[in-house]
Amino acid sequence: MVRNVSAPDLKLADVLTISPNPTLSVYFSGLFDQFGWAVVRRDSCESAIDFLRRNRAAVAICEEELPDGDWKSVIRAAGTLPDPPSFVVIGEEAPLWQEVSRLGGFDVLTRPLREADVVWAVASAWHHWMKQAEMHEQQEEERPAIYAG
User: What domain range is 133 assigned to?
Assistant: First the structure.
């Protein structure tokens, strides 16, 4: 069962949806129910960035256009964080992929959304994020301890 989370003390969301369209979040919640993923919805750049500053998300699915900006604003802001999510952008054109990739995004979904494509893109992005998190933890463990004295 999907845990639709809005609690302020959340530490990790599996999927953050960034869209002014509440129907899209309901669609994703239903689709990801089979994985038991926690899905959190934010409807603007500002609210998504605020969420990411306080919490972690493995994957962020972001609409191309948002009421107060676009996907680039969110990716750039998230890029300054220690553990940014893997970004999947929902757009109208496939050529968007090059720009998304160049700015550090993971994948692009084009409309009309197809269930198999959505599941594949998000699952792949989630696995990518997990590998990045594991590598980051491993690097932290391998750093030599510095002793003052």
Answer: 3-142
